[in-house]
Structures are given as structure tokens and as C-alpha cells.
What does this fold into?
Amino acid sequence: MKRYLSWSGGKDSSASIVLCYENGIPLDGVIFSEVMFDHSRNISGENPEHIEWIYNTAIPIIERMGYSVNVVRAEKDYVGLFHTRITRSKQAERIGKKYGFPLGGMCFVNSQLKVGSIKKFQKHLDLHESVIGIAYDEPERLSRLKENSVSVLAQYKVCERDTYELCRRYNLLSPLYESKSRGGCWFCPNCSVKEFARLKKYHPELWDELEKLSHDPDIVKQGFKYARTFASVNREVDLINNQISIFEYMKEQHHVEL
Ligand code: SF4
It folds into this structure.
């Protein structure tokens, strides 16, 4: 039976790789599913700092451990889903409109881009076992593990708090944990407004992408972050970023201890 480890680059799945390595547990490969924002321009949908670390730091380390890393991407991307037109709906006025931004709590990106590409990869495998990064102290998640899935963290009684140290040992702790920024997609409706402010400050070109999409007159709904429109979130984002600028300006100009 083949054994693949589902890896997100987060602490739990990275610590699972370390456990396999240290305990000689053979793996036929590691699978990383990358959500793409736009295939045609090679724009990833993953948190920018995280994906940079995945390719430039983490994958080379894991490969040096002797495991091959399979990066899988769905054929579709965020932009394609955004522009997909609704063909069936009980509300006739919705038909022909574009899906637009994903709905918070019912995200089509996860099912169609993230999980879909892993399932497609697994479809071509014979009998296999999936190693999933769920810690020993997460009984509820462990109870939902599917039949052909195992948690090495649970087998070795590794709790969530212990995963940081395992990752650090091999430089496999994503910079997300140092910066306290959120993992996942940079356009996620579950990002806090502060997180979006950070995105606009450090990656304005990505924020511009969302702004352009928000002006599409054919989208079925204006909600960008749950019921809030992009324009409303953008105003708050600017307030946050301008406050930070004033704070930094005062510090520089007056050398005030703030
Ligand atoms: S991080 Fe957010 S946008 Fe990305 S798949 Fe998960 S819920 Fe959807």
C-alpha cells in the first residue's frame, strides 16, 4: 500500500513529516495542493510569504530528507471561478450573472481548487493511505478521520504545542507563525480587516486585483467579506494603514517614545 502525506506547510503537517523522518516511517510522497489565483499570470492564491517559503525553503529541506513533494494544482483558478456564470437558480434574476467573490462559510475555492486537486491526484493511485496532520489533543478532528487516513502525531502522542519544536528542529516552521499572519488564501473572506490591511500595505498589486474584480458589473452579489462590500472593507483598510503611517511619521519626526 502506498502512503502519501497531505502537507499544507502548517505546523501540524510539517511536524508529521519530521516524525516520519525521525522514526523511519516510509512515505511514497508528500502532496501539497496550491490554490492558484490566476494560472495565466502564475499568481498563487496562497499567502505570499508562506508560498515563497514553501518553494524556496521547505520543499528543498523535505527533498533532502528523501521525500518527493508533489505540488498539485486544480485546472481551474480563482479568477475562472469568479467569472463563471450561474446557469441554474430558483431566482431567475441570478441566471447569467457571475459567481463573484466566494461566500464566507461556503467557500467554493476549498472544494473546487484545494480539495479537488488532491482528490484528482489520489484517483490515479492504487490502494493508498493518507497521513494527515492532526495532533494527539484534537480528539474531535481525529474522530472524523476517514478509513484510509492516519495521524502519526496521534500515534506518537504529539500535542499541538509540541509541533513547533519539531518543526524548528529542521527549519520547517513557516514564517506565518513568526509574523502571526494568517495562512490560507490571501483573498479569503475569513481574513480579518487587519489582515487585509497588511496585504494592501505589503502586496498592493494583489489588493488591486481584488479591487478591479469588485467593479465587475455582472457579479451576482457585492459581498466580499460576508455581507460587506469590497469598498466598505477597503475604506477600513485605508484607515488602519493611514493610522499606522501617522504613528510611524510621528515617531520619526519627533523621536517620541510611543
Ligand atoms: S483559505 Fe479561505 S478562501 Fe481559501 S479555501 Fe479556505 S476558506 Fe476558501
In short: The CA atoms of residues 187 and 210 lie 8 Å apart. Residues 35, 102, 107, 109-110, 114, 184-185, 188, 190 surround iron/sulfur cluster (CB under 6 Å). The mean pLDDT is 92.
